[in-house]
Structures are given as structure tokens and as C-alpha cells.
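Posting for a labmate who doesn't have an account.
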Amino acid sequence: MATMTLDELKVGQPATIVAVHGHGPVVQRLMALGLLAGSPIQVIRRAIGGDPIEVSVMDYALSLRREEARQVEVSPGP
């Protein structure tokens, strides 16, 4: 199945995290917040202008900047 980045998901569209790309403290922070390969994720809402993006992961809501969401590769679908 085709993959995309988290910032490309539509509101309410379910997906599964495939990978978190990049290096350094930002990637470590994202992984510490629960953005791990195999985890289900869903975009809850976007702010006006699309930044930040609120997602649901591991039964909690998390707000990410669009540039952070671009580092998260997801596979759409339940």
C-alpha cells in the first residue's frame, strides 16, 4: 500500500505509523511522545492555516507542527 506523510492525512482518516524519519532531538522527542512504527494514528483537527495539527495516538491527543508531521511516514487505513 502507498505511504504518505502525517501532514497529508485528512481529518478523521485513520493510518498506521510506518517510520519516523530524520535525526537528532526532534525525532527522539517524537518517538518519546508515542510516534512509533506500528502505532495507529488519526488526525483529529487542524488549526486555521494547517499548523499545528492535532492527532490521536496511543489514546491521547498530541499537537504537532506541520514540519514535525512531515517526518512521520504513515500508511492510510485502519
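Reply:
Got it, the C-alpha cells are right above this. The first strand starts at residue 4 and ends at 5.
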